[in-house]
## 1
Amino acid sequence: MKKRIFSGIQPSGNLHLGNYLGAVKNWVALQKEYDSIFCIVDLHAITVPQNPEELRRNTLELAKTYIASGIDTQSATIFVQSQVSEHAELGWILNTLTKMPELDKMTQFKDKSQEHRENINAGLFDYPVLMAADILLYDTNVVPVGEDQLQHVELARTLARRFNHQFRETFTVPEAFIVKEGMRIMGLDDPAKKMSKSASSELNYIALTDSPEKIREKVRRAVTDSGKSIRYADDKPAIRNLINIYALLDNAKPEDIEQSYKGKGYAEFKNDLAEVIVDFLGNFQAKYNDINDKDVLDILETGRGKGKSLAAKKMEDVREKVGFLQ
Ligand code: AQP
């Protein structure tokens, strides 16, 4: 039997190259080897305010993004989290096994509650427990994520072990899967912070929907480090980030890219990088624009059926172990 991967993205706005390189690119690479489940995590998205019409549209667009990125809809399962109610049910049960200090230390909660001071809701605090439920419901072996989600996968591992210890063997203990170069793509305007959908400036990220002109402008205006040489080094965080993006999109090694720009300047490097991104996103956008809503809705309906049947079976076992009447 193939091992299983599970991962998800929130339909909370335009996806950027960080989401693609940190998560989706790895899903595409792993999907042949693993039984793959890719979720659109809308229950997570509402932990910050969402406009209902936009949320619905973003959900469909995210499904299209998965497909246009190369997720094989014949073999992988794509579904919407809120359409499989077992996620919320297991989340509740896992809440009762989670200690407050375990959630209190989560970096994402700290960052997001700073950003959304007017709406620090219990869901935002509880987000990692729901994410643990997402993963554990499907006996997931491997969770491909960016570095920002590692702490959450660690909690899923802890809760799996804790439940198994308390109620007998029930859940598979998952492992995170990370690719070093893509695990933390940084903002183009600030290489000290991760590239983020909710960044205040558009110059922070390259959205997968950006036009060639926008891409060229954003790359041209990306901050660089002091000095002139193209070096892949820790003391050059801005250029290191740009080399990582280049390497991942061009399937090259960062060290080879560094080598090929020896003696050349930032302008030439940035011009070439912009064209690599324009090419990549041009192909992506052509595929994206070819997908129609009806086909996506059919794929999501099939995915809902598969997700539901796996999750329902798991929850029967969980309810029995916890002591609920069946
Ligand atoms: N900058 C990044 N570099 C590498 N991976 C990243 N991911 C996000 N940003 C980067 C990975 O993308 C997946 C989906 O993330 P999400 O939808 O849960 O969103 P997020 O992690 O909260 O980050 P975003 O997309 O920038 O949204 P906001 O601005 O709302 O925080 C995850 O696997 C994540 O690791």
Note: The chain has 13 helices and five strands.
## 2
Amino acid sequence: MTIGIDQLGLYTPPFFIDLRELATARGVEPDKYTIGIGQDQQAVAPSSQDVVTMGAAAAKEALAGQDLSKLGLLILATESGVDASKAGALYIHRLLGLPASMRVFELKEACYGGTAGLMMARDYVAAHPGKTALVIASDIARYGLATGGEVTQGAGAVAMVVAEAPRILAVNDDSALHADDIQDFWRPMYTDQALARGKYSTEQYIAFFDEVWATYREKTGRTLADHAAMLFHLPYTKMGLKALKTVLAEATPAAQERLLAQYQASIQYSRRIGNIYTGSLYLGLVSLLENSETLAAGDRLGLFSYGSGAVGEFFSATLQPQFRQAVPLHGHAPLLAQRKQLAIATYEQLFADSWPNDPSDYQSEPAWFAGPFVMSGVTGQERQYRAND
Ligand code: COA
């Protein structure tokens, strides 16, 4: 049975900053951000946008035209969740009016969560013929103003409907895995800003990639030449390139050129949105499908997922005959083109205006309401979600 991604949705808030302007404001040479780190713009989420509202928006797009009576599983993968107990997936379930007879929950393993959800959904569909699953990867990456990680912030969500006989991508059962308890990146419960050992985390990402790539190659007998494109988790776009370059010499010059060109197609959206943690690998997938004109049905893609802490997984996926109808070229270009650019001072004000980490009530600023769903405020320690009408 072929199982995989039948439909995709992508959402990012309609506000961004230009990273050359941020560099100037921070006294940094702009080329460091755009060339050294590989980011041009960064999505900015006002406080009315969180993993629930962004995830619901992406899921609304992914579910368009789907038979909801087949849906048996909803997974929200996130590492910037809004409650330590209740699954944000339940708010999304209500906002989208999904059937009551479903498994609905949230899962976490840093940026690996989206892949954990995708693999769990594939197994669920295999065990329950005729059923479908919805996987949402939604995150706001926050490191703090004027920190080293600020340039790698971002916000957005990717949603995937997983089904038998998928229209876009078959997810193959060929994973190579590596897990180890390391302390490269984490976020204590008392703060919404992540802590990272930047250099160490970069080294570990590459070490985990090299490990799972070697295992995958040995297990499947495949080489780089068997892959039309290699996709990477993208905390910033230079990161995947560093990993790819550690193995590129295994390929012929022509294959190297092809893989580098496809890599460029895969990072177009991340360069403008930034890190969306659990969704970053799948943002790269959407970007590749919408910005590469040389892909064809039957092409095999290689995907490297990494979640700090840490888990690495490499697997392949095969493009299906209807992929181009399901993912039109440049389909999400308008979502990015129609965003509003913010001055750095405005971004700093929005960054400071976040919901309270204490029992007080809070009202999100209606002037910044955007997208199909909003978190209008917090009343009596309960978050208030509604359609943005
Ligand atoms: N022009 C072009 N490139 C420049 C430059 C300039 N003027 N100035 C610096 N650079 C390059 C550096 O040479 C370096 O390139 P390299 O990585 O290829 O060596 C790159 O820009 C970054 O410079 P560096 O000094 O290493 O930056 P930093 O110490 O400020 O670190 C981050 C920045 C973003 C890499 C770091 O904060 C980080 O890793 N944060 C997040 C960690 C993370 O996301 N972890 C999760 C992994 S999944």
Note: The mean pLDDT is 97.
